[in-house]
């Protein structure tokens, strides 16, 4: 387990055009009740927030997830991050894994998912990226949306109409993913760009959370409190209380304010997430 970055209740980022974006975030992780080692890792350093869930055995999975977040953390402190930056970090992480002699002989890999503040056509945007079955969610106006699509066997079955979403949660192959960082493969993330909106809340999490909470449960905790710290802790506690069958990592990011250079006041500030 590697944790890079701490929570922050108010952090200002000034973009090249003068746009001022204020963020708050919190991250927590736990081994869970059935695992001996926490193979999850995370980086929570503006402008990039990511979670990696390692695979391949205790030492190998921990090594792989650490390699990914360590490389992604090299962008911490920048103003914006682009897809080329993320691609390069993931390629370097795979090279780092190959150097882990004695650790990765049987192969190692990791999921990775996250969000990075970037620019699309000179407009601020969250760049959402994903490999594997860790997820990113967005809460705006009380509406929860899953922004990533799992790279998994059960997701393919759902897409093909062979099983329902509810059946996928209990499917015997629910842990089998179809894409990862490592295992001697080129890392190929899916990307999605979304607008940066004042009042939005983002959740980045490993599947240790989504195995234990439905989307309804996740939304319940995301809207229940304005504090990112308390929301992250409550989500973690709920996952552990529902079984904690896997490592659980939760990273919550709020957009508190967005101030354009041609305005004197914020476009909006974070109201209660429960408001809709």
If you had to describe this structure to a student in words, what would you say it looks like?
The chain contains 7 helices and 13 strands. The chain has 276 residues and is α+β, with helices and mostly antiparallel strands. Strands 1, 4, 5, 6, 7, 10 and 11 form a 7-stranded mixed β-sheet that branches. Strand 2 and strand 3 (20-30) form a beta hairpin. Helix 1 runs antiparallel to helix 2 and helix 6 (215-223) runs antiparallel to helix 7 (228-241). The longest helix is centred in the first third of the chain and has 16 residues, at 83-98. It is globular and about 55 Å long.
Furnish the topology, listing elements before pairings.
Layout: E1 3-4, E2 8-14, E3 20-30, E4 40-45, E5 48-55, H1 58-72, H2 83-98, E6 109-120, E7 123-131, E8 135-140, E9 143-146, H3 153-159, H4 165-169, E10 181-182, E11 190-195, E12 201-205, H5 207-210, H6 215-223, H7 228-241, E13 248-259
Parallel strand pairs: 1-4
Antiparallel strand pairs: 2-3, 3-13, 4-5, 5-6, 6-7, 6-10, 7-11, 8-9, 8-12, 12-13
Notable characteristics:
single chain; 276 residues; alpha+beta; seven-stranded mixed β-sheet; six-stranded antiparallel β-sheet; 7 helices; 13 strands; globular
């Amino acid at each position: 387990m590697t944790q890079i970055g701490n929570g922050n209740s108010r952090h200002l980022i000034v973009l090249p055009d003068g746009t001022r974006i204020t963020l708050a975030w919190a991250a927590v992780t736990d081994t869970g009740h059935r695992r001996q080692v926490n193979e999850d890792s995370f980086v929570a350093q503006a402008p990039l927030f990511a979670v990696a869930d390692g695979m391949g055995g205790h030492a190998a999975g921990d090594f792989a997830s650490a390699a990914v977040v360590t490389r992604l953390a090299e962008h911490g402190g920048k103003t914006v991050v682009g897809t080329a930056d993320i691609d390069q970090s993931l390629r370097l992480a795979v090279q780092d894994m190959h150097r882990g002699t004695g650790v990765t002989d049987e192969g190692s890999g990791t999921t990775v998912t996250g969000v990075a503040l970037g620019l699309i056509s000179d407009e601020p945007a969250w760049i959402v990226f994903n490999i594997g079955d860790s997820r990113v969610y967005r809460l705006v106006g009380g509406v929860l949306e899953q922004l990533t699509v799992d790279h998994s066997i059960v997701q393919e079955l759902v897409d093909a109409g062979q099983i329902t979403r509810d059946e996928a949660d209990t499917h015997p192959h629910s842990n089998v993913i179809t894409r990862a960082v490592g295992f001697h493969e080129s890392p190929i993330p899916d990307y999605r760009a979304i607008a940066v909106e004042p009042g939005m809340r983002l959740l980045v999490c490993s599947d240790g959370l989504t195995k234990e909470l439905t989307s309804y449960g996740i939304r319940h905790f995301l809207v229940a409190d304005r504090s990112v710290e308390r929301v992250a802790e409550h989500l973690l506690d709920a996952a552990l209380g529902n079984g904690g069958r896997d490592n659980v990592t939760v990273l919550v990011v709020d957009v508190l304010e967005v101030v354009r250079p041609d305005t004197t006041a914020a476009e909006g500030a974070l109201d209660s997430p429960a408001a809709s």
